[in-house]
Amino acid sequence: MTRLLGSRAVRLAIAVGLTAYLLWRNDPDAIARVARGADLNWLALACALVVFDRALMAWRWLALLGPVMTTTPPVGAVLRVFFVSSFVGSFLPASVGSDAIRAYSLRDHDVPGSAAVASVVMDRALGVVAILLVGLVSVVALTVPAPLGVYVILLAGGVASLALASVIFIDPVGDLVGRGMARLPGAPVRAIAAKLLAAVRTYRHHHAALSGVLAASLGVQVIRVLQAWSLGRSIGIEAGLAVYFVAIPVVLLIMLLPITINGLGTGQAAFLWTFGTAGVGKPEALALSILFIALGILGNLPGGVLYAMGGRRPA
């Protein structure tokens, strides 16, 4: 517990320190003026789009639970776990915290631990694949200047995704990973690893479910790009929609890194880097980053209401 709290404190310190440094170096008064002048109509559109992306995210997790469950828990209970874990995860390292809470909380609904973790792993993996696909297609199809680092990040993510896909869908690779897990120290660890690998590889027989979830994930990423574009329009950023389709996937990948709390600090740095390359001023890019992260927190507030209402709560 002491180590966990220490790790969380370090990430919080990095988030606060990096955010404060970026604000200090880039005229906080100008950033505040940009944010205060935001157009409420464009802000309302961005908030409305949040409803659609959260609905798609909830649906895709429900769809992923089916293939690994013999009996599916009540839909209402699963949705509550999803929204509450998303809210609590806002205060934990990137997406890792909410994923862990989501898998752990399903134990209250008689879902085997390996199945719960497998569903969360596939949900996260397909979400990352969707981000990569949107980013790669945008970089190739749109004539938007992008720094070399953008290509490196997208390529590295693509390699990691292909590695996971080979474990799931290619039997010799899965068997090789299984033999490696059999050499892990401790019988309990080996048993858990074997169950998790078996649960994840169950998905190789459910192409229709995976295709539907991937399509929903692509929809989520397109909506997130439109959210950022709406926020940018609200503060007067004139960059075209194509710039957002190239920049936002890279920003999202950087924010997923479990370095800080909820992508604070790393998100601001990513917006400065990607939008700065497109000619967006630093105060505008930082204001956009703050609005984008705030919009994500706003989308998680329904989970906070459910959490406050009591009943079963994630540990």
Characterize the overall form. Answer: globular
- Count of DSSP E strands? 0
- Low-confidence residue ranges: 311-315
How many domains make up the 3D coordinates? 1
User: Would you tell me the overall average pLDDT?
Assistant: 81
Q: Which radius of gyration do the C-alpha atoms yield?
A: 20 Å
Instruction: Provide the succession of SSEs.
Output: HHHHHHHHHHHHH
**Distinct helical segment count:** 13
Largest sheet geometry: none
Helix and strand content put the structural class at mainly alpha
Strand proportion: under 5%
Helix share bin: over 70%
Measure the end-to-end span.
14 Å
Keywords:
single chain, 315 residues, mainly alpha, 78% helix, globular, disordered C terminus
Question: What's the structural blueprint in terms of helices and strands?
Answer:
Layout lengths: L1 H24 L2 H9 L3 H29 L6 H15 L6 H10 L7 H29 L6 H22 L1 H11 L5 H15 L5 H28 L6 H16 L9 H12 L4 H27 L7
